[in-house]
């Protein structure tokens, strides 16, 4: 389709710009170490459709629309997202809420607790 782009490697600024203008990030990756693209999309107010994997459940935190490995399900989700502005608004809001779990303050608190637990 004319409205789908595969862009390869891009500078961070360009990625952010594209995410801000996108209807959604499609993230069908089975193998992901952390899932940073999900958080980048959420920070850019871009709804996320992702494969239902343990890391995507963890990072998505209820803000990503998690889907099985079934193209028909992805097509249905895409159609729903494209035709419903309210779904997109809700997903953007949930994405911003989810980002608070990954703030520098939250990350520092987790590390502080871990170091305290081991006596450092």
Q: CATH homologous superfamily - what is it?
A: Glycogen Phosphorylase B
- Low-pLDDT parts are none
Helix-residue proportion = 55-70%
Biggest sheet, spatial arrangement of strands? 1-2-3
User: What class do helices, strands and sheet pairing give?
Assistant: mainly alpha
CATH fold name, please? Answer: Rossmann fold
Largest sheet: 3 strands, parallel
| Quaternary assembly | single chain
Give the helices and strands as they follow along the chain. Answer: HEHEHEHHH
Characterization of the model:
The chain has 120 residues and is mainly α. The protein has one domain (12-117): Rossmann fold (3-Layer(aba) Sandwich). Helices cover 56% and strands 8% of the residues. It has 6 helices and 3 strands. The chain has helices spanning 12-21, 36-43, 54-60, 71-83, 85-99, 104-117; strands at residues 25-27, 48-51, 65-67. It has a 3-stranded parallel β-sheet, with helices on both faces. Helix 3 links the parallel strand 2 (48-51) and strand 3. Helix 2 (36-43) crosses helix 5 (85-99). The chain is globular.
